[in-house]
Specification:
heterodimer, A: mainly alpha, abc type-2 transporter like fold, 4-stranded mixed β-sheet, B: alpha/beta, Rossmann fold, 2 domains, 4-stranded antiparallel β-sheet, 38% helix, globular
């Protein structure tokens, strides 16, 4: 005799496949990442190219011809005419940064007194602050060059005035920086897939069964409620896993065929680790949804609850951003949070240890099982079966 | 055989079933008759083990429903009052699903389904999705689904409710056939005429208690009137309409 859980599983899967709403969920959730990457890639490219090709309006260029000529010689820098009112032009976003050279510049420069120049900018704007720091760096370099010349003219080694040399050793590799900026969305995207995948089935097979009243006839078939719940969970979990894998495939595809957007992507072995993380995550999400759907009296009510649950994928995103959780600490074993963190680690080239993967996966499965048991107890309760 | 005794069930302040007991014997049709809200459905739900009685006991072929609900359900076929099929499955798939859950192998399930197709004349719609079924079509699939494992005891909660003449006749034919095959059939109704047509024994329930029990003749005697409908009205304590 076939296990009743398997019979329920096959039936719910069949109904799920025939449900058009499930298909729509699949289409929506797999298209999130490509859209996100396209938008983000376009955005960050714009910022970077604007910063590289710098047109710098200069007010009072005539007071510092040497400085202006030096700036003009720098690659990617073009000197432009200053607007009438630099402050107003910056405020109105017509210009990002304007260099203002006062009349006293030449006099101060000749006397060896620090000659002041002014940068007019709005630092609250991302694009502007990138430009501002570039211009500031350029003028700083010019200043150093002049200083070195002056010292040499006086017979002093310029090295003498640099007793301590500061170099920033960048631990954050270029690869990791790119990854953190753009690939950081992959874990959230996969988490959303795990969430959306089983949603329709959980709502229909559990809450819908209650709403229609078919639960009554189902429960008189001499099959224990836990076998029924297991079968329903299995169908929801299958969809969640399927959508998660589809999500991983989408990521691989997008990163490969949109090189303009992001030019660094994880290795095939990394993707395998992502899958290892995504599967227990999907199983856990399905359990959570089955429990929530058991509380719902109708398909619609379940959908409403799932709407609130959809905020859960946001939590790890912020938790990681604000540093509430860290890889390697106990927080990385909390289901959902841990998977998110480790996926982030994997795509950022900082894969977690094998034992960490195993422990996090096992904990997610234990939690999933506990939730499922709870759902089984609820499912056959009188007030669940008969209150509609 | 179904034996119930001293059943009681309350929902907060409301006493749905105060004290109900009866026996539904093999080879007999037993009718649970009572006005709406008398406690028929609650009694039925306790029979198939979905509601736990606060007092009393139920045995199905000697198996205690509370101690061994799965064992009792295995001897029971039930048609609950919620007439719901799975809308995205065909009628045939709905029947097969329950057959498989009951542990019947695919071959037997298929041949039983064929039997029901002939018996209940379902050929015209059984391979269509259940979503678009008429009331009559749905009720036939529901009946086949409830009986597909050929249970010794059959419990039907208001089986003819809302059915047209032809469907009601089909249902009656099915109930008579079950009796001929020695099954214990218990069905609930609030329609006197139907009960008197089919039943060997009648249990009249009013306000959660058994008002009368016995053969139609005994019920007539107990109420002291010739007409069964009149007897029902007297025994359930409802006001007699004045013509």
């Amino acid at each position: 005799m076939m296990d009743p859980a398997l019979i329920v599983y096959r039936k719910e899967l069949l109904e799920g496949i025939r449900d058009r709403r499930a298909l729509v969920a699949v289409l929506i959730s797999i298209s999130i990442f490509p859209i996100l990457v396209l938008v983000m890639g376009r955005f960050s490219e714009e910022v970077r190219s604007e910063a590289l090709d710098l047109t710098l309006p200069v007010e009072g260029a005539a007071y510092a011809p040497a400085l202006v000529a030096w700036l003009d010689r720098q690659p990617g820098v073009e000197i432009g005419p200053a607007p009438e009112d630099p402050e107003a032009a910056v405020r109105d976003r017509e210009e990002d940064v304007v260099l203002r050279i006062p009349e006293e510049y030449g006099e101060d420069f000749a006397e060896g007194v620090p000659a002041e120049v002014e940068l007019v900018a709005d630092t609250s704007r991302t694009g502007a602050s990138v430009k501002l720091s570039r211009v500031r760096g350029l003028i700083g370099r010019y200043s150093q060059e002049v200083a070195a010349m002056r010292l040499i003219a006086r017979g002093v080694s310029p090295l003498l005035v640099r007793p301590v040399a500061v170099e920033t050793a960048e631990v954050f590799s270029a690869r990791r920086r790119t990854v953190f900026q753009a690939l950081g969305f992959i874990p959230m995207f996969l988490l959303m897939n795990a969430f959306f995948g089983g949603m329709q089935i959980a709502a229909d097979a559990v809450a819908g069964e209650r709403e229609r009243g078919s639960i009554e006839a189902l429960l008189v078939n001499a099959v224990p409620a836990r076998r029924l719940v297991l079968g329903k969970w299995g169908a929801a979990a299958t969809f969640a896993v399927f959508l998660s894998l589809l999500g991983v495939a989408t990521c691989v595809f997008v990163l490969r065929f949109m090189p303009g957007a992001i030019n660094v992507s994880p290795e095939p072995a990394d993707w395998l680790l992502v899958v290892v993380l995504a599967v227990p995550l999907a199983l856990f999400c399905a359990s959570l949804q089955v429990v929530v759907a058991t509380y719902a009296k109708s398909y619609k009510e379940a959908q409403t609850y799932f709407g609130y649950l959809a905020f859960i994928p946001m939590i790890p995103f912020f938790a990681v951003t604000f540093g509430w959780v860290e890889q390697g600490s106990w927080t990385s074993f909390i289901p959902i949070l841990g998977q998110h963190l480790m996926m982030l680690g994997v795509v950022a080239g900082d894969a977690p240890a094998a034992w960490e993967l195993v422990v996090a996966g096992a904990l997610a499965l234990v939690a999933a099982t506990a939730l499922l048991r709870f759902a089984s107890v609820l499912f056959a309760r009188e007030n669940v079966v008969f209150i509609r | 055989m179904i034996t119930a005794s001293g059943l009681r069930k309350t929902f907060g302040e409301v006493v749905a079933v105060a004290d109900v007991g009866f026996t539904a014997r093999d080879g007999e049709v037993t009718g649970l008759l009572g006005p709406n809200g008398a406690g028929k459905s609650t009694t039925m739900r306790m029979l198939y083990g979905l509601m736990a009685p606060e007092a009393g006991s139920i045995e199905i072929d000697g198996v205690d429903v509370r101690k061994d609900p799965m064992g009792a359900q295995a001897r029971l076929g039930a048609l609950p009052d919620s007439h719901a099929l799975y809308p995205r499955l065909t009628g045939r798939e709905n029947i097969r699903y329950f057959a498989r859950l009951r542990g019947i192998d695919p071959m037997t399930a298929a041949s039983r389904t064929e039997d029901f197709l002939r018996l209940l004349e379902m050929g015209g719609f059984v391979d269509r999705r259940a979503k678009g079924y008429s009331h009559g079509e749905r009720s036939r699939v529901l009946l086949a689904r409830a009986l597909v494992h050929d249970p010794q005891n059959v419990v039907l909660d208001e089986p003819t409710n809302g059915l047209d003449v032809m469907s009601t006749r089909r249902m009656r034919g099915m109930i008579r056939e079950l009796r001929e095959r020695g099954r214990a059939v218990l069905f609930s109704s609030h329609i006197m005429q139907e009960v008197s047509l089919l039943c060997d024994r009648i249990v009249i329930i009013a306000s959660g208690r058994v008002a009368a029990e016995g053969t139609p003749d005994r019920i007539r005697d107990a109420a002291g009137c010739e007409d069964l409908e009149e007897a029902f009205v007297r025994l359930t304590g409802e006001p007699v309409p004045v013509d």
